[in-house]
Amino acid sequence: MLTTAQFENNRKEKLGIAYFIFNDHLSVFTALDDACMGSSINNAEEIIKAICNKERVDPFCMRFFDLQTRTSYGGGLRKLEPGDFEFDEVLIVPSSQRIQGFHADCWKLTKCPSQVIKKFAAFIDGTPRQYIPRAFEAKFFESSI
Questions:
Q1: Enclosing domain of residue 47
Q2: HSE-up of residue 13 (Cα within 13 Å, Cβ side)
Q3: Which stretch of DSSP H or E encloses residue 20?
Q4: Is residue 144, in this structure, part of any structural domain at all?
Q5: How far apart are the first and last CA of the chain?
C-alpha cells in the first residue's frame, strides 16, 4: 500500500504525494497534484523532508526516486501520453544553507524497475512506457526490489 504525505510548495500551498519505501531505504514518490500547483522536481527537498519526517528517518540513510506521470505532469510543459512516465533518482547533498540540512543536487534518469511500475500502476494511466527525453545509459537502482 502506498503512503501519502503533504509538502508545502514555494507558494505556501499544501500539496500531496504518494510514496513507497522498498527494501527499507529506497523511497519512490509521485506528486498527487498537477505540475501547475508544484511539480515534484521543483519541490524535491520539501518532498524528501516530508517523507523523512513522516518515516522518522535521516535523509542520508535513504535514496529517493521521483516518478513523474500524467497525473503529476499532465498540465506541465511536457505533454505525456497515457502510460508515459519518467523516473529519476534525486541525488541529495549536505547543505548548511538549507533549513533541512540538504539540497537536491541533480536528477539522474534511471531505468524504472517493474516492481515500481506495478506498485504505482494507478498513477500510470495506460500501458507503461518510460519517457526518455535524452540519450543516457539506464541503470537499475537495485535488482532486489
A1: 3-130
A2: 11
A3: strand 14-22
A4: no
A5: 15
